[in-house]
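Record now logged underneath.
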Amino acid sequence: MTISQSSDPDELIKALNLKHLNAEAGLFEVIRVSDLSVTASDGDSPVSNAIYFMLTKSEPQNYLHWLYSDDYQTLIEGGPADYYLFFADGSVAKYTMGRDLKNGQVLVVPCPANAAKAIVLHESASHLLVSSVVTPAWSPQRARIGADESFVDQYAGQADWATPEFLSFLVGPNFGHKIGAAATGLNLGIDSLGQIIWQGMQLTDAQALLEIKKFTGAHPDQEFEITFDDNQTASSTCAKRLADLAGQAGFSNVRLRQC
């Protein structure tokens, strides 16, 4: 399809193979994970990764999440949408992504490392499509979704919009619990769609193999599990493929478990 400013959201979702983003919400697809490497907080990491990310009328909000890494989001089409950023020093910022530059909207939102953000699509907008480049690359060990009362206490009153009620709204259904960031162990699951899941978050094959490499390097004698549903063809096929890829990469301590 030819992408224009009036592209139909459903056509974009199909053309770009976008899928629901667990926990955070919105739609996404990984474009590429870099072959270059840097050292991050939990060891070696690809320099960066790039994804498409989209909000729509049916998924108008991306819930609060924290990243270890820098995240640069660039408008492709659609909007406007409001970005709410929360920094480690207790300050906050708000950007409106859109094309009305004369009225303060921006084409790029830079979210620095060690900050949290949430995104809300304007009611007047049909969708927002952006590219997101995260550096060092996104990892479930370097991301955290959700917050609790301590988040509200820290940021309430830091801006006119930062009321306790609105901050809770930005956290959404993840209020009171957190997903990701330095979880112990490695138990990968394969859902009915054939997606690799860890701590409720989706991983590509490459991302999963990187987590396997880090885990086996730290725990060379410890097994890890890949759990799958043998009654779902996509689930069992993905599990066996991932186990084969791990074996080819020299990681032999893999155990498949049916559920």
In short: The chain is about 20% helix and 35% strand. The first strand starts at residue 19 and ends at 20. Residues 194 and 235 are 4 Å apart (CA to CA).
